[in-house]
Fold this sequence. Notes:
The protein has helices at residues 4-9, 57-73; strands at residues 17-20, 24-28, 36-42, 80-83, 99-103. By secondary structure, the chain is α+β, with helices and mostly antiparallel strands.
Amino acid sequence: MDCLFCKIIAGEIPSNKAYEDDWCYAFFDIAPQAPTHVLVVPKLHISSTDGINAENSIYVGKIFEVIPKLAAELGLGEGYRVITNCGENGCQSVKHLHFHILGGKKLSENMA
Ligand code: AMP
């Protein structure tokens, strides 16, 4: 499968790792949109939120256990935003489920 994030997880494409365990891999976004911008991706290829089902949703749960710990390690104690884009109208550019963690400043109240 020709998937950028699968290649990053496999180490075939370099990334700046922030965290890794058996379920997920986190790395700094190459084009940060906030002072801290990290992507958390499941190690299983899931296309988007539309690809989440009863068989793979454990990956999502594991990721959301990691996010608050990772955010704290990243110094985001004053708050942060978690975003996942889905599909054309959601402006999803990489078709492997990923959660953006954005923080390090007061973020815009406008989310759309
Ligand atoms: P999305 O638009 O929600 O699909 O988010 C994809 C994100 O992946 C964007 O924020 C990109 O800047 C980021 N991205 C693309 N290629 C890389 C890469 N090689 N390393 C790190 N982040 C990347």
